[in-house]
Structures are given as structure tokens and as C-alpha cells.
Amino acid sequence: MSEGDFAELSGHEQSATKLGKREQTKLVNRESILNAAREVFAELGYGETTVRDIIRKTGLASGTFYNYYKSKEEVFEALMDEGMMRIRPRIRAERVRSRTFEEFVRNAYRAYFEYLATDTNTFQIMRRNPDALRVRMDTPEIVAGFEEIREYIDEDIRNGVLAAVDSEYLMVAVVGIAMEIGDRMLARPNPDPQIAATFATTLVLQGYKSLPPK
Q1: Residue-level pLDDT at 100
Q2: Looking at the domain covering 3-70, what would its CATH class be?
Q3: What one-character DSSP code corresponds to residue 136?
Q4: What is the pTM of this model?
Q5: CA–CA gap between residue 56 and residue 191 (Å, rounded)
Q6: Which of the four pLDDT bands, split at 50, 70 and 90, describes residue 186?
Q7: Is residue 41 packed enough to be buried (19+ CB in 10 Å), middle (13-18) or exposed (0-12)?
Q8: Considering only the top CATH level, what class is 77-208?
Q9: What is the mean pLDDT of the chain?
């Protein structure tokens, strides 16, 4: 394999080439399960999906599946964590380039809604499983992502950029608005991230200014 060929490999493929055969097999099996689960959850919905449906789509033995996940719940949570791992770097980048709290809120919402509208896998899963998403928000990566947003708010409060409001409540309000508007945006025939971002931004920026000090 030439250096040029290697550079064209995806992140997972590059990782696999550096691993031993057993590790490569584990990586391939895990990706096979997650890819199959994305399709099944998008097609059947969380409630109707069974482990057997996922296994059938992978072509793996049932014993192989259970070497990685104990249930469909664990697979769904792994998919949600993967989604958060993709969006967190985008939010961090917006944080770095934003000069004010208001600018950060605007840029972060735009990045999030654009991600939803362009990531086909996430689009299909969220459209088909909105209720499941609401009850599976306590995975490690998602919790870490939420806390990262709260840290941004606390930092702005310490620096005098933002009034000393309840940072926990403000964080869950910002996140909740993103989740609910994102769900409704995807339900529309032609999802428009800019319209969603403008609405969410205006709601947060006008609302938080009226909050009493903590």
C-alpha cells in the first residue's frame, strides 16, 4: 500500500491497519453491528426493533453480537454516543471562534442544525425514533457534551461576559431547545437549518436576558 493509498483510508480503516488480526476483527464486527443497527432503527423504529433484527442484518452469529452488546438498548446508546462525538468538535470550534456568548449561541445552533440536516444516518434515526432519543440522554458521551456546554456558560459568568444566572438551568434550556426544534425541523418536508438556528437563537438570547441573578 502506497502512502497515497493509506492517506485515503477512513479513520477506522487506518486504525485497523495498525492493529493485529484479532483487533481488526473486533473493530470490523463492531462497525458491522452499528451500521446494521442504524438501518434497522431507521426502518423499524426503536420500539419495533429486536436484537434478532440487528443480527440478521449483520450476518453475524448471535453469539458474536453478544460479545459486544447485551441488548438493543446498548446498541442504541452506542449510536447516540457516536453522534455526540461527531458534533462536539464542531461546537468546540464555534466556541473558539465566537467572541461573545451571543455569538457562540448563534454559531453553535447553526452548526448543530446543519449537522442534523446533512448527516443522513443521524437524520434517519432521529426522524424514526424521537421518543427513544428523549429517554436515552444519559450516556457518557452525551453527558460529557452537555457538561461541556455548561462549562462554557460558567466560564462566561466568571469572566463577566454573562450575568450570574443558574448555569445548569440555562444549559438544559439551550440543549432542550436544540433537541426539540431539531426534531421538528427534521419532520418538515424541506428542513432548513438556518431558519431553525435563527428561531432557537432568538428565543435563548431574548429569554436569558430576563432571567433573575442566581
Answers
A1: 87
A2: mainly alpha
A3: -
A4: 0.72
A5: 32
A6: confident
A7: buried
A8: mainly alpha
A9: 83
Q: What is the pLDDT of residue 2?
A: 41
Domain edges within the chain = 3-70, 77-208
**Which of these, 52, 54, 32, lies nearest to 43 by C-alpha position?**
54
Helix, strand, coil fractions of the chain, as percent rounded to 5: 75, 0, 25
Rounded to whole angstroms, how far apart are CA atoms 39 and 121?
8
Ramachandran angles phi, psi of 192, nearest 5°: -120, 100
What b/e string do you get for 56-81 counting C-beta neighbours within 10 Å, with b at 16 or more?
A: ebbebeeeebeebbeebeebbbbbbb
Average pLDDT over residues 88-102: 90
CA-to-CA distance for 138 and 73, rounded, in angstroms? 12
Residue 43 to residue 175: CA distance in whole angstroms: 27
Name the strand (E) or helix (H) holding 148.
helix 140-158
Question: Which position has the grid cell 502506497?
Answer: 2
User: CB pairs under 8 A, 24+ apart, for 53-60?
Assistant: 58/32, 58/33, 59/32, 60/29, 60/32, 60/33
CB neighbour list of residue 19: distance below 8 Å, 6 or more residues apart: 27
Whether 3-70 shares its CATH topology with 77-208 is answered no
